[in-house]
Design brief:
Number of helices of chain A: 16
Shape of chain A: globular
Strand content of chain B: 15-25%
CATH superfamily of the domain at 5-63 and 177-243 in chain A: HypD, alpha/beta domain 1
Largest sheet of chain B: 7 strands, mixed
Number of strands of chain A: 13
Helix content of chain A: 25-40%
CATH architecture of the largest domain in chain B: Alpha-Beta Complex
Largest interface: A-B, 35 and 31 residues
Order of helices and strands of chain B: HHEEEEHEHEEEHHEHEHEHEEE
CATH architecture of the domain at 5-63 and 177-243 in chain A: 3-Layer(aba) Sandwich
Order of helices and strands of chain A: HEHEHHEHEHEHEHEHHEHEHEEEEHHHH
CATH topology of the largest domain in chain B: Phosphoribosyl-aminoimidazole Synthetase, Chain A, domain 2
Strand order of the largest sheet of chain B: 9-11-8-12-10-13-14
Oligomer: heterodimer
Shape of chain B: globular
Number of strands of chain B: 14
Structural class of chain A: alpha/beta
Chain lengths: 376, 347
Amino acid sequence: MKFVDEFRAPELINKAADEIRRLADPSRHYRLMEVCGGHTHAIYRFGLKDILPENIELIHGPGCPVCVLPMGRIDDGLSMAQDPNVIFTAFGDMMRVPGMNGSPLEHKARGMDVRIVYSPTDAIKIAQANPDRHVMFFSIGFETTAPSTALTLKRAKSLGLANFSIFCNHVTIIPAIRAILDSPDMRLDGFIGPGHVSTVIGCRPYEWIAANEKKPIVVSGFEPLDILQSIVMLLRQLKNGEARVENQYKRVVPWEGNRAALAAMAEVFQLRPFFEWRGLGFISQSALRIRDTYAEWDAEQRFNVPGLRVTDPKAAQCGEVLKGVLKPAQCKLFGNECTPEHPIGALMVSSEGSCAAYFNYEHRKTAMLTNISASA
Amino acid sequence: MATAVTSKIRFHEPQIEMAHGAGGKASRRLIEGLFVPLLCESSTGILGDAAHIQLDGVRVGITTDGFVVKPLSFPGGSIGELAINGTVNDLAVSGVKAEAIVVTYILEAGLPTEILEAEVRAMAKAAKKAGVIIAGGDTKVVEHGKADGMYISTAGIGRTIPGVTIDPASVRPGDKVLLSGPVGDHGITILLARGELDLEADLTSDTRSVLPLVEALVKAAGPGVRWMRDPTRGGMATSLNELARDCRLGVALYEDDVPVRDTVRGACELLGLDPFHIANEGQFLAVVAPELAEAGLQALRATPGGENASLIGEIREQPAGSVLALTRYGASRIVDMLVGDPLPRIC
């Protein structure tokens, strides 16, 4: 398959792995953060830890939109859909995220009209097909999905669609990276930069990380070879004492980003003064709200949103895992009370969540290897 | 007595979710936690695709299956054809040649006769092709708005194929895992046929009887065939995990040797699905002793429809109870059972 197979070719992967071993200083421990949940998933899915030297530690970052959303927002969204006239629509990865009284899917089993859509424009189609009901789309994501929400709002406005609204939960990536860098318990050597977000925002917004924080950052693709190549580029910079923004994902990411997408976002969204993130707390100017010119399609303005603040279960350490302070398996609930089937925290639900990725692809393997070495 | 049985119930979930019908972990919890304790005095063999019973000294296989696929027809097949092939296949991979099937139709008031007739014709055709008779049936009609047109339930019975015993306990480290052909065609075809995605691909369901392939394998490698399963809901990953759990051994999967069509891979890449979790309706997996694996593979490949059969893995001591996919670049990952239900009502 084109654009996939060449980035999974064993000979190229082995070559990149050799280069990593050559560049990594054996007396040094490297802590590299992959910001994006898509990278976390790929790292486990492709078993990349098996081929990296032990002194290269990958720290999972906050770039999983489902994971960073505090539980109260799910309950807010579901509370609007308690009205039987409302159809609740969302992407599939929201469906199993636990709220205080269960996930959207559990609400569906109890009779709520909950539908999975693959694009917000599908939610518009549902609204057109059900003119006497109200369709709410639970929008979520970083700058990756915000442009499609923006275009959907513009379309709803141009159609004059009265029975449609969006519950906006979009967040932005830069403030989250800043919060990570500001956290005192975090020592990082460099960043594997987000790929999909950067197709929209480009590479410039990361320049302060290199200039002020003196950390290298390489915007990376999602195939095994992409990630290994990005690690090679980071190690080269570290070896030469450099801190620059580099773009490994040139086949998709333009340095300046996507101007049309940014313009659509600017027309429809404005920054919220602050927004709560799971694990990172309130971060100022870190999330988007719908502008008043689109108020008619803003679920938060149309409905009475309770604004619930629900704290995560006490024993769950989602916040620490999100910040990269704890590894998934170090959380007290991991694999016991909290599994992909019975998730307590969103990190165990989303395909981009580090706990789900670790549980699905890695942890029994690790346990098994530990057992073998213990018995040897 | 009743208390003793009740105390064995381990299924305490408050309500049934779609995942309980998806064939993965939740289905297993429901069956083992509720059905087995209440319905079966001894649970041995209950979780296979078919049950073996003795009738006047003759060993027969019996199975039942329900079909709720949406839409009713799709490229390469339809609910009627699926009902016959699914029943024949459950028996075939249990080492049984289907002889007779009985059918229950649950029909929605308002279903156009033309659609019903087409499905009944499809069943007759599939039965003839599979060499099985439809020996009887029952018809129920429910109110308009229920049953989405039609549901079909079947029961099938047949004689055991001589020369083969299916028993996960006989699986040994070193045994080889064979797969009859590419995986994921059925599930992805259904997904695309629903038209909810703006995706089109030249793909058809793999629904067919696997009996000719099973017979060819048994003829060539009968004494070495230890286990077979048709990986329907939950896909190949779920079937292999059940095997690993039942035989308390590990399954090492050579990821790059598993045949998957490019269209299926492409759709899975786009949608974030794993082809190993996607349902099949015309494939089967077999564990064969190492000395007979090659003969079995060649026999499958020489049978029409088995050209893409492949050796995709082997049984190892570790990781006991799990499936580990190995890549050509020296990395590995755990392949788990399906969790949740990404594609409901696939068959």
